[in-house]
Amino acid sequence: MTPRRPERRSEESARAIVQAALELCREVGYAKLSIEGIANRAGVGKNTIYRWWPSKSAVLLDGLLSAVSVQGPFPDTGDVVADFKTQMIAASSILASPDTGPHYAALIGEAQQDPALGSALWDRLVGHLVAAATERIRSAQQQGQIRPELDPEFVVELLYGPTYYRWLIRRHLPDPDHIRMVVDTAFAGIAPSGPAVG
């Protein structure tokens, strides 16, 4: 699934369509969201939407990306434990926000049936976040704060997996105390047994 098609002629209409998709998804849920409903809310024809997006999930993904930053450096104060707590607590606000959390959850769910959406979600959002985290992990490994033999992507799964499990399966929003406990528990296993170097 590619980003919004570049031949769009009206940024104003494109913004109205994306905003309509976000509003309707909040109001009726993803299952009842439709291209027809989005078009009616945005005041455009369905054909306009289909010229620029292949599906309702593509419109919603653009809406999510308009509200979520995937750029910016990962915190690096020299204390990798503190940095992951800071970043993960900040990132959890995306999951907790009614403006982003339900849309993200809906897209994750839909991606289980739509491989193109799954690829787009990874390429345009999740992959950027994972890359920033793995770079921070490699830096910590070089500094002797994380065991050097561990695959950085495994460490990402170990740290972030509990939050996604709690949010998607248990339906509990992650809170700062829970995230701090996850990070402390994970680092008890991934930190070197000897004193840190550097």
From TrEMBL:
InterPro entries: Homeodomain-like_sf, HTH-type_TetR-like_transc_reg, HTH_TetR, Tet_transcr_reg_TetR-rel_C_sf, TetR_C
Residue span, HTH tetR-type domain: 11-71
Ranges annotated as DNA-binding: 34-53
Keyword presence, Cytoplasm: no
TM region(s), chain numbering: none
Keywords assigned: DNA-binding, Transcription, Transcription regulation
Protein name (Swiss-Prot/TrEMBL): TetR/AcrR family transcriptional regulator
